[in-house]
Amino acid sequence: MNPQQRQIMLNYCTEYDLHASAGSDFHRPNKWSDLGRNLILPDGAKPIWALWS
Question: Which of 18, 22, 24, 28 might form a disulfide with 13, Cβ 3.0–4.6 angstroms?
Fold first, then answer.
């Protein structure tokens, strides 16, 4: 996701009290989809794995 898309997703998480995850979904090489890169949650996102403990 590009930064604007990440912000939109964070807004959804905040508005609807959703938890977030990170993953790599590779379709083709470009600056946003390098496999295994940029897999951090934005500040303010609640990680889904926090529910598992």
Answer: 18
Residue ranges making up the domain that contains 44: 3-52
2-29 tens-digit pLDDT:
889 889 999 999 999 999 988 766 566 6
Q: What does the alpha-carbon distance between residue 11 and residue 28 come to, in Å, rounded to a whole number?
A: 27
- At 39 the pLDDT is 75
Token pair, residue 48, equals: 């889904």
Number of domains in the chain: 1
- In this prediction, residues 35-47 reach a mean pLDDT of 81
